[in-house]
Amino acid sequence: MRPFELSLADAAHLVAAGELSPVELTESVLDRIGAVEARLQAYVTVAADSARESAARAEREITQGRSRGPLHGIPMGLKDLIDAKGMPTTASSRVRADHVAEGDSAVAARLSAAGAVLLGKTHTHEFAYGLTTPQTRNAWDHSRIAGGSSGGSAVAVAAGEATFALGTDTGGSIRVPAALNGVVGLKPTYGLISRRGVTSLSWSLDHVGPLTRTVRDAELVLAALVGQGRRDPAGHAAAPVGRASSEAGDLSGLRVGVPRNYYFERISPEVEESVRRAIGQLQALGVELVEVEIPMARYIQAIQWGLMVPEATSYHERTLRSTPDLYAADVRVLLEAGEFVSAGDYLRAQRARALMRESWARMLGHVDVIAAPAVPMTAVKSGQESVEWADGTVEAVSDSYVRLSAPANITGVPALTLPVGRDRAGMPIGMQLMGRPHDEATVLRVGRAYEVAGADAEAAVAS
After folding, report:
1. CATH class given for the domain over 3-462
2. pTM of the full predicted structure?
């Protein structure tokens, strides 16, 4: 296996053992960027020289016995909404073409302190306001969308252009591209990870989280971002993520909720088959399956848009009036629409969100985790605008992808997506695991158990 193909955990193990140097790993990933970036367009900016300097510094420190942990010397990408001192933060928009960050965001500072090597900034759908990331191509089929808005981060990880990356998630923007590109994406509990220095789309829905190749890798990144035993700036206790792997095998005693409504409605047969098969594998690992009713399902879309649209418009109020032509047409239309949302409508959406949070808390009082599809269909062809379902309904592609992700943003619960199969065209399918607020450990434990069982099964077949 070439260095750029390694998982974070495997690369960290080899670096710690002295069998792989951070310089060698970083050069391998930079070479991979050089080989595929022209086709994939995952990056806005690649900072090769500074990455090499960081890798060389990491190598010296590790050789001198000053290891900072598993992320030390590991190359990674940041979504181009996340400030890193001295680098542009363009949000993939002409509006921010000349913006250079004066300081590190909170998450960039944590990753720097952990010794990670910053490769560059990855593409986003403009200002994270979309689910396709049109600049970037899917890692598995270049004629298909990457998903968004963290499409660049997902493709970079899937294609070996970064060992891990960070994205943001307002309505599925980590989980959607992760699912469409066959990688792992984690949206933590709302407020668990600081958003200081991260360009906002919708302040009450925005989250920051990792995109990785494995669930174990997501654990490692989350631990660095949160800090064991520390508290984040919002005052929330750090999640005890470290215990997930050690308990990964046997899931006896855990209750997994399987939705009887909403999540399995209007999805492709191949997605449903793969996710239900994965749920069956969780049952084989010892979980008790419990059928659950998703509360307030008919109001999810209205609440999501009722919160996101006016909040986004408020953030962009000045530039929307001064330089509207610098926005892409699809984003400008959404921002202009937000000017017609009344204060009363916004407050009603906030009240409805409070009721939904209470309803989800009651539901999650009976189960430990909810398992469901991450997206209703695999990656569509670039340029496709709508999808027709078996019941005859026609849905916009963006509405389709956000539909199954939005509840976790509205309620703020942690949500993990991981690959569980492929469709007939070979495109990845993702399963979503959602848990109680600040119980990332259980969500990761279930995901890791599924992941390990799948790896063991593949090894058995190969032998």
Report:
1. alpha beta
2. 0.95
